[in-house]
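thought: fold this chain, then report.
action: predict
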Amino acid sequence: MAHEKRRGDNAAPNAGTGTATGPALELLVHGVGGTTPAAMLDDPRTARISGDATAAVYRRAEDVDAESRPGDYRDRPIREAYVWCNLTSGNGSRALWLLLLPFMVVNLAHWMRPNALRVTRTVRLYGVIARLTGLTLTVLLVAAACEVALDLTAWQCAGRAACAAHHRWLGFMAVDAHGHGGWWSLPGRRLGLAAVVPAGLTALLWYLSHRTWAAYESQRPLEHQPEPDDGDHSTALRRPGFWYGRRLVSRLRAAHTAAGLLTVAAAVGASAARYDRRPGGPVFLDVMGRVLVAALLAGALLVVGVVVSRGRSENRVDHDVDHAVVRALPYGALALLALTMVYAGWSRPHWHTSGRLPGNAAFGCVALVQGALVVALAVAARAVYRTAPDRRTVLRGFGGPATAVLACALGGVMTGGVAQRVADWLDGTDHLIAGPPPLLSWQASVIPPLLAVLALLAAVLVVRTVRRTRRQEAQVRVDYGLHDDARGGSTGGEPPDAARTRRIASTRARAALTDRAPTAIGITAAVTLLLGGLAVVGAWATGQVPDTAADAAAPVVDGAADTAQALGSWLIGIGFILLVTLGRRAYRDPSARRTVGILWDVGTFWPRAAHPFAPPCYAERAVPDLTWRMDTWTRNTGGRLILSGHSQGSVLAAAAAWQLPPSLRKRVGLLTYGCPLERLYGRWFPAQFGPTSLTTLHRQVDCWRNLYRLTDPIGGPIRLPGAAGPQVDHPPLLDPLAYGRTEQHPLPAPILGHGDYQADPAFDRERDRLLARLKPGVPAQAAPADPPGTAG
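observation:
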């Protein structure tokens, strides 16, 4: 409240009106891939005026003291560049975050909720289901680590003298041919020692989540009064606490860490408790085992309760701390794990290992729970979509459930492939161990048929792209005024070039593939769900069919299954090698680092609301940076500013504008180019960037102009309904600027696609129009009509 009062006392006298009393500021925000301040400001001499090495605002050296020389900037704006590329691609080791891809994808599914007329129980249920789906991915990852370390290594291989003989590093806990060994050879002690690996993995994920939060997302946003609901059902991006999810991330981090440790404890203690329930064993061990099992179940229920509890607090910046029970949850789970390790390590002379570690049915249970959650998420998404249907929303509201399917599939395939590869490495071709649970092998086997479906889908897209290219060739000739029997005109004296026409048309056709992505992802998700269900059925049938019946199965079917499983496990191994190689290259090669950064620019824009171990959200640093800069500058100078955003920078610019108080928002103009606000974000995240939200933003800012090209695979029009559409969207820019050689372009003009929008004369023209509205004493007015011939 005090902060809001201070802003009101110091605001410019005519804040929120159509005039300005101070200078104009042009704040540039770059897009994916990053750039340098010198390139953005077109000057090699730049100076950092605010920020740090991670993200900062720069000016040209001669503009550092611009506010003290207002007379020099009456006819031109002060230019600043906000550089945020190091938030995503500054450190090459961040490429290893690709291994956290399933967590990032399920977090995206949370934000893909369809738009709703109001917040209802179904809307809240959607968020709860998404968080529970994220929890199953954590359990699956830790269970896979337990499978590799506890089952395959400590239980099976170390328990077989022939297998341990091939791996000398297992000698200290291996048994000999007579079943005897050293102190570590007892099954419970082997399991307790191997449990250090999955427990360490859980601790590493907790540490990374805590450290990245402190480094990236702990920036406090600009606090202001929440805006009243005026009935327009606009985005939650304008709420004061949207970009500060500290409490939720802390709560989920505690719950997921506890879930991981409880999973390890269950893997260690389940076999010992099962052995102690046999008649004739020590009573106190049986009682202790039952008590530990009950404690594990109670801990699991507590974890689920914490995950399904209240979600994000967005109407205010939430500085509260969760209850002590929530904060102590990981420590309680760690203590329970320690007790379980002591219990399992108790001497049991007659306890020997054989077959697989008991509890392998847990993978089937996780798969079934994930399937049920995905179905429930689809039902909730459909119910929400029906309240405010929009045909531009991907898959008619099923985009979130489809993405959740892909997240679960990624987790299952990665865990199944790793387990299968480790089993092959430990066992070789000797068949000395039972191997991983059947479900993991079946999950690896679905990769070849899934790749075959993807190849067929790619072939269909290629055919459609070829057909679209042919249709676009005629449109290219129309756009550039070409005639087969004419010379001169817009071609500058050259006849039409079939290769040039085809190249332009092909670029346009390939750029249009972005609009085919929803259909491709929907088909992939449906096939993945079907194959996943078949894998569960196949694993169950394999475990139920007697060996004699299995031996009588058709050799062709048996051979095909074995081949698919082996090929799938090898493909997973190759995939992991490629990921690690990419990470190592990104550490040394700046161009590769920028490529990896582009992936995270798209995937980590959203806060961690469904999974705390997902890569950090860079927007929780970038949006407060931009908002604080705009707020302090406008209050201190009384001027107005224009936000100039390219690509992902346009998304950050819109998010920052939403975070401003309404009085300051009216003094901001938007210039976006290569903008994915509607084409990607509006379709995939309609609850935040849907047509209603973008229309409200257009109405609340001073002015907005958007530039795009048909050759741009990322940017596109904003598509506001009614008269607002032409006011915002400039007609598509011609790309290339000239078809042939002209006096202005004596050399062939390149096809720019998504980059270098400043090279088009329309960019300067539209920027000048917006800046003219920001001059002191000039009232706000509608932008003039575009001159003829500026677009095709």
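thought: worth noting. Strands lie at 24-29, 46-51, 56-60, 78-83, 640-646, 668-673, 703-707.
final: tokens above.
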